[in-house]
Amino acid sequence: MRVKLTSMFFAAAMLPATLWAAPAPSQQCPDKGAYVQVLGAGGPELTTGLASTSYLIWQDGKARVLIDAGAGTAMNFKQAGAQMADLDAILISHMHVDHVADLISLLKASYFDGREVPLPIYGPTGNQLTPGMTDYMQRLLGLEGLYPYLNNFLAEAPDPSFSKASYRWVPRDIQPSETPTSFALGDLRFASADAKHGGVPALAWSVTLEDKTLFVTGDSSGPGYLKAMADEADIIIAHNALPQSYSGPVERLHMKPDAIATIVGQSKASTLVLSHFLDRTATSSVQQETQVVLAASFKDEIAFAQDFDCYPL
Protein backbone atom coordinates (compact mmCIF):
# COMPACT_ATOMS: atom_id res chain seq x y z
CA MET A 1 0.00 0.00 0.00
CA ARG A 2 1.44 3.31 -1.07
CA VAL A 3 1.41 5.76 1.84
CA LYS A 4 0.40 9.40 1.42
CA LEU A 5 3.37 11.53 2.40
CA THR A 6 3.50 14.56 4.63
CA SER A 7 4.38 17.71 2.67
CA MET A 8 5.54 20.85 4.48
CA PHE A 9 6.06 24.19 2.81
CA PHE A 10 7.08 27.41 4.51
CA ALA A 11 6.70 30.82 2.89
CA ALA A 12 8.35 34.15 3.63
CA ALA A 13 6.21 36.61 1.76
CA MET A 14 7.82 39.70 3.22
CA LEU A 15 11.31 38.90 1.93
CA PRO A 16 12.41 40.18 -1.47
CA ALA A 17 12.48 37.45 -4.10
CA THR A 18 16.14 38.15 -4.78
CA LEU A 19 17.01 37.32 -1.15
CA TRP A 20 14.78 34.35 -0.49
CA ALA A 21 14.36 31.01 -2.17
CA ALA A 22 11.58 28.72 -0.98
CA PRO A 23 12.78 25.40 0.42
CA ALA A 24 11.55 22.28 -1.31
CA PRO A 25 8.68 20.53 0.47
CA SER A 26 9.72 17.60 2.64
CA GLN A 27 8.61 14.12 1.56
CA GLN A 28 8.58 12.08 4.75
CA CYS A 29 7.33 8.60 5.60
CA PRO A 30 5.18 8.22 8.73
CA ASP A 31 7.19 8.41 11.95
CA LYS A 32 5.78 5.18 13.42
CA GLY A 33 6.43 1.72 12.00
CA ALA A 34 8.76 0.30 9.35
CA TYR A 35 8.67 1.46 5.73
CA VAL A 36 10.66 1.41 2.53
CA GLN A 37 10.85 4.68 0.63
CA VAL A 38 11.78 5.00 -3.03
CA LEU A 39 14.38 7.76 -3.31
CA GLY A 40 15.03 7.00 -6.97
CA ALA A 41 12.73 5.06 -9.31
CA GLY A 42 14.70 5.72 -12.49
CA GLY A 43 17.75 4.33 -14.22
CA PRO A 44 20.61 5.99 -16.09
CA GLU A 45 18.42 8.20 -18.32
CA LEU A 46 17.61 11.80 -17.40
CA THR A 47 14.50 11.99 -19.57
CA THR A 48 12.25 9.98 -17.20
CA GLY A 49 12.34 12.83 -14.67
CA LEU A 50 13.20 10.33 -11.93
CA ALA A 51 16.28 10.07 -9.75
CA SER A 52 18.43 7.02 -10.35
CA THR A 53 18.04 3.92 -8.22
CA SER A 54 17.86 4.19 -4.44
CA TYR A 55 15.69 2.84 -1.62
CA LEU A 56 15.63 3.76 2.07
CA ILE A 57 14.34 1.63 4.94
CA TRP A 58 12.81 3.59 7.82
CA GLN A 59 11.90 2.55 11.35
CA ASP A 60 9.99 4.89 13.67
CA GLY A 61 11.12 7.99 11.83
CA LYS A 62 14.80 7.03 11.53
CA ALA A 63 16.62 5.97 8.38
CA ARG A 64 18.13 2.51 8.97
CA VAL A 65 19.36 1.09 5.65
CA LEU A 66 20.11 2.67 2.27
CA ILE A 67 20.06 0.40 -0.79
CA ASP A 68 21.94 1.88 -3.77
CA ALA A 69 22.75 5.55 -4.29
CA GLY A 70 22.27 6.58 -7.91
CA ALA A 71 22.26 10.17 -9.18
CA GLY A 72 19.75 12.29 -7.26
CA THR A 73 19.87 10.16 -4.11
CA ALA A 74 21.71 12.70 -1.97
CA MET A 75 19.17 15.47 -2.58
CA ASN A 76 16.20 13.14 -2.13
CA PHE A 77 17.73 11.60 1.00
CA LYS A 78 17.80 14.99 2.67
CA GLN A 79 14.41 16.04 1.32
CA ALA A 80 12.96 12.84 2.79
CA GLY A 81 14.14 14.00 6.20
CA ALA A 82 16.83 11.34 6.61
CA GLN A 83 20.07 11.71 8.56
CA MET A 84 23.35 9.97 7.72
CA ALA A 85 24.00 9.73 11.46
CA ASP A 86 21.09 7.27 11.78
CA LEU A 87 22.09 4.74 9.11
CA ASP A 88 23.10 1.24 10.19
CA ALA A 89 24.36 0.18 6.74
CA ILE A 90 24.52 0.96 3.04
CA LEU A 91 23.91 -1.88 0.58
CA ILE A 92 25.09 -1.59 -3.02
CA SER A 93 23.75 -3.91 -5.72
CA HIS A 94 26.47 -3.25 -8.30
CA MET A 95 28.89 -0.61 -9.49
CA HIS A 96 27.06 0.86 -12.47
CA VAL A 97 26.86 4.65 -12.36
CA ASP A 98 23.10 4.79 -11.86
CA HIS A 99 23.51 2.85 -8.60
CA VAL A 100 26.55 4.51 -6.99
CA ALA A 101 26.95 8.03 -8.43
CA ASP A 102 25.79 9.80 -5.24
CA LEU A 103 27.52 7.52 -2.75
CA ILE A 104 30.53 9.82 -2.35
CA SER A 105 28.25 12.86 -1.90
CA LEU A 106 26.37 11.12 0.90
CA LEU A 107 29.53 9.98 2.61
CA LYS A 108 31.05 13.45 2.55
CA ALA A 109 27.79 14.92 3.84
CA SER A 110 27.86 12.49 6.76
CA TYR A 111 30.80 14.43 8.20
CA PHE A 112 28.46 17.36 8.78
CA ASP A 113 25.52 15.21 9.87
CA GLY A 114 26.78 14.35 13.34
CA ARG A 115 27.83 10.78 12.65
CA GLU A 116 30.43 9.44 15.12
CA VAL A 117 30.51 5.66 14.52
CA PRO A 118 31.71 3.52 11.58
CA LEU A 119 29.39 3.05 8.61
CA PRO A 120 29.52 -0.38 6.90
CA ILE A 121 29.04 -0.39 3.12
CA TYR A 122 28.35 -3.79 1.55
CA GLY A 123 28.68 -4.48 -2.16
CA PRO A 124 29.81 -7.12 -4.64
CA THR A 125 33.29 -8.25 -5.49
CA GLY A 126 34.75 -6.94 -8.75
CA ASN A 127 36.03 -8.17 -12.10
CA GLN A 128 37.50 -6.64 -15.24
CA LEU A 129 34.29 -4.66 -15.88
CA THR A 130 33.71 -3.04 -12.49
CA PRO A 131 35.65 -2.78 -9.23
CA GLY A 132 34.50 -4.49 -6.07
CA MET A 133 33.18 -2.49 -3.13
CA THR A 134 36.51 -2.26 -1.32
CA ASP A 135 38.46 -1.48 -4.48
CA TYR A 136 35.87 1.13 -5.49
CA MET A 137 36.31 2.96 -2.20
CA GLN A 138 40.09 2.78 -2.45
CA ARG A 139 39.99 4.22 -5.97
CA LEU A 140 37.89 7.10 -4.67
CA LEU A 141 39.54 7.78 -1.32
CA GLY A 142 42.97 6.16 -1.33
CA LEU A 143 46.08 8.32 -1.20
CA GLU A 144 46.43 7.73 -4.95
CA GLY A 145 42.68 7.96 -5.55
CA LEU A 146 40.38 10.69 -6.81
CA TYR A 147 39.76 12.28 -3.40
CA PRO A 148 42.84 11.68 -1.24
CA TYR A 149 41.80 14.53 1.05
CA LEU A 150 39.06 12.18 2.34
CA ASN A 151 41.45 9.29 3.00
CA ASN A 152 41.20 9.67 6.78
CA PHE A 153 37.64 8.33 6.60
CA LEU A 154 38.97 5.11 5.09
CA ALA A 155 42.48 4.76 6.51
CA GLU A 156 43.34 2.27 9.25
CA ALA A 157 45.43 4.91 11.04
CA PRO A 158 44.08 8.39 10.31
CA ASP A 159 45.98 11.58 10.79
CA PRO A 160 46.15 12.30 14.56
CA SER A 161 44.64 15.70 13.90
CA PHE A 162 41.54 14.18 12.28
CA SER A 163 38.59 15.34 14.35
CA LYS A 164 36.45 12.21 13.86
CA ALA A 165 38.91 9.42 14.54
CA SER A 166 36.07 7.14 15.68
CA TYR A 167 34.22 7.40 12.36
CA ARG A 168 35.15 5.24 9.36
CA TRP A 169 33.59 4.19 6.10
CA VAL A 170 33.99 0.41 6.17
CA PRO A 171 33.56 -1.26 2.75
CA ARG A 172 32.90 -5.00 2.63
CA ASP A 173 32.98 -7.25 -0.44
CA ILE A 174 30.38 -9.99 -0.91
CA GLN A 175 30.90 -12.67 -3.55
CA PRO A 176 27.76 -13.03 -5.68
CA SER A 177 26.49 -16.58 -5.32
CA GLU A 178 23.41 -18.62 -6.15
CA THR A 179 23.30 -19.59 -2.46
CA PRO A 180 22.39 -16.51 -0.41
CA THR A 181 25.01 -14.94 1.85
CA SER A 182 23.40 -13.99 5.17
CA PHE A 183 24.51 -11.81 8.08
CA ALA A 184 23.02 -9.66 10.83
CA LEU A 185 23.61 -6.24 12.34
CA GLY A 186 21.71 -5.91 15.59
CA ASP A 187 18.01 -6.34 14.82
CA LEU A 188 18.60 -6.20 11.05
CA ARG A 189 19.05 -9.37 9.00
CA PHE A 190 20.48 -9.27 5.48
CA ALA A 191 20.82 -11.76 2.63
CA SER A 192 22.27 -11.33 -0.84
CA ALA A 193 22.48 -13.50 -3.94
CA ASP A 194 23.85 -13.20 -7.47
CA ALA A 195 21.43 -11.06 -9.47
CA LYS A 196 22.91 -12.14 -12.84
CA HIS A 197 23.32 -8.76 -14.51
CA GLY A 198 25.25 -9.71 -17.63
CA GLY A 199 28.96 -9.91 -16.87
CA VAL A 200 28.85 -7.37 -14.04
CA PRO A 201 29.05 -8.67 -10.46
CA ALA A 202 25.67 -7.78 -8.96
CA LEU A 203 23.63 -8.58 -5.86
CA ALA A 204 19.95 -8.96 -5.14
CA TRP A 205 19.28 -7.98 -1.53
CA SER A 206 16.78 -8.87 1.18
CA VAL A 207 16.47 -7.00 4.47
CA THR A 208 14.44 -8.21 7.44
CA LEU A 209 13.27 -5.80 10.14
CA GLU A 210 10.51 -6.35 12.70
CA ASP A 211 9.97 -9.82 11.18
CA LYS A 212 9.08 -8.23 7.84
CA THR A 213 11.26 -8.78 4.78
CA LEU A 214 11.94 -6.51 1.82
CA PHE A 215 13.39 -8.17 -1.29
CA VAL A 216 15.01 -6.02 -4.00
CA THR A 217 15.86 -7.83 -7.23
CA GLY A 218 18.34 -5.19 -8.35
CA ASP A 219 19.24 -5.15 -12.03
CA SER A 220 18.73 -8.81 -12.82
CA SER A 221 18.09 -11.17 -15.72
CA GLY A 222 15.91 -13.22 -13.37
CA PRO A 223 17.70 -16.45 -12.46
CA GLY A 224 15.30 -19.00 -11.03
CA TYR A 225 17.04 -19.32 -7.67
CA LEU A 226 15.95 -15.77 -6.77
CA LYS A 227 12.43 -17.15 -6.46
CA ALA A 228 13.26 -18.62 -3.05
CA MET A 229 14.18 -15.16 -1.73
CA ALA A 230 11.07 -13.62 -3.30
CA ASP A 231 8.81 -16.31 -1.82
CA GLU A 232 9.76 -15.28 1.73
CA ALA A 233 9.38 -11.52 1.20
CA ASP A 234 6.56 -9.35 2.49
CA ILE A 235 7.25 -6.65 -0.11
CA ILE A 236 9.22 -6.93 -3.34
CA ILE A 237 10.88 -4.22 -5.42
CA ALA A 238 11.54 -5.50 -8.95
CA HIS A 239 13.44 -3.60 -11.59
CA ASN A 240 11.42 -3.04 -14.76
CA ALA A 241 13.81 -1.87 -17.46
CA LEU A 242 12.31 -3.91 -20.32
CA PRO A 243 8.79 -3.99 -21.79
CA GLN A 244 7.21 -7.34 -22.59
CA SER A 245 7.61 -6.63 -26.32
CA TYR A 246 11.40 -6.36 -26.09
CA SER A 247 13.57 -9.01 -27.71
CA GLY A 248 17.33 -8.63 -27.78
CA PRO A 249 20.64 -8.77 -25.96
CA VAL A 250 19.57 -6.63 -22.97
CA GLU A 251 17.65 -9.65 -21.65
CA ARG A 252 21.06 -10.78 -20.38
CA LEU A 253 20.93 -7.82 -18.00
CA HIS A 254 17.26 -7.20 -17.20
CA MET A 255 13.94 -9.01 -16.79
CA LYS A 256 10.89 -8.62 -18.96
CA PRO A 257 7.57 -8.62 -17.08
CA ASP A 258 6.97 -12.34 -17.65
CA ALA A 259 10.35 -13.09 -16.06
CA ILE A 260 9.43 -10.91 -13.08
CA ALA A 261 6.15 -12.83 -12.83
CA THR A 262 8.04 -16.12 -12.68
CA ILE A 263 10.15 -14.86 -9.77
CA VAL A 264 7.33 -13.31 -7.72
CA GLY A 265 4.27 -15.35 -8.68
CA GLN A 266 4.24 -17.63 -5.61
CA SER A 267 5.48 -15.06 -3.10
CA LYS A 268 3.63 -14.35 0.15
CA ALA A 269 4.31 -10.64 -0.51
CA SER A 270 1.34 -8.31 -0.30
CA THR A 271 2.95 -5.65 -2.50
CA LEU A 272 5.05 -5.75 -5.68
CA VAL A 273 6.69 -2.42 -6.47
CA LEU A 274 8.13 -1.90 -9.94
CA SER A 275 11.04 0.53 -10.28
CA HIS A 276 14.21 1.38 -12.26
CA PHE A 277 12.23 2.66 -15.22
CA LEU A 278 13.80 3.63 -18.51
CA ASP A 279 12.01 5.62 -21.20
CA ARG A 280 10.86 2.35 -22.77
CA THR A 281 9.05 1.27 -19.56
CA ALA A 282 8.00 4.63 -18.10
CA THR A 283 4.98 5.33 -20.33
CA SER A 284 1.44 4.67 -19.13
CA SER A 285 0.65 2.42 -22.10
CA VAL A 286 3.65 0.17 -21.49
CA GLN A 287 2.92 0.07 -17.76
CA GLN A 288 -0.66 -1.00 -18.47
CA GLU A 289 0.70 -3.89 -20.56
CA THR A 290 3.14 -4.76 -17.78
CA GLN A 291 0.32 -4.73 -15.23
CA VAL A 292 -1.66 -7.25 -17.28
CA VAL A 293 1.28 -9.64 -17.57
CA LEU A 294 2.10 -9.49 -13.86
CA ALA A 295 -1.49 -9.64 -12.61
CA ALA A 296 -1.90 -13.06 -14.21
CA SER A 297 0.57 -14.44 -11.63
CA PHE A 298 0.76 -11.93 -8.77
CA LYS A 299 -2.68 -11.39 -7.23
CA ASP A 300 -1.93 -8.68 -4.68
CA GLU A 301 -1.03 -4.98 -5.04
CA ILE A 302 1.17 -4.00 -8.00
CA ALA A 303 2.59 -0.47 -7.82
CA PHE A 304 4.65 1.56 -10.29
CA ALA A 305 7.05 3.58 -8.16
CA GLN A 306 7.63 7.31 -8.20
CA ASP A 307 10.34 9.14 -6.27
CA PHE A 308 9.41 9.51 -2.57
CA ASP A 309 6.74 6.79 -2.60
CA CYS A 310 6.60 5.06 0.77
CA TYR A 311 5.42 1.50 1.45
CA PRO A 312 4.97 -0.32 4.78
CA LEU A 313 7.08 -3.42 5.29
Protein model, in words:
With 313 residues, the chain is of the alpha/beta class. It has one domain: Ribonuclease Z/Hydroxyacylglutathione hydrolase-like (Metallo-beta-lactamase, Chain A, 4-Layer Sandwich). Helices cover 17% and strands 24% of the residues. It has helices spanning 73-79, 97-100, 103-110, 133-141, 226-231, 257-264, 284-295, and strands at 34-40, 54-59, 62-67, 89-91, 119-124, 169-174, 181-185, 188-194, 203-209, 212-216, 235-239, 271-275, 301-304, 310-312. Strands 6-5-4-3-2-1-14 form a 7-stranded mixed beta sheet. Strands 7-8-9-10-11-12-13 form a 7-stranded mixed beta sheet. Helix 5 (226-231) links the parallel strand 10 (212-216) and strand 11. Helix 6 packs parallel to helix 7 (284-295). The model is unreliable at 6-25 (pLDDT under 50).
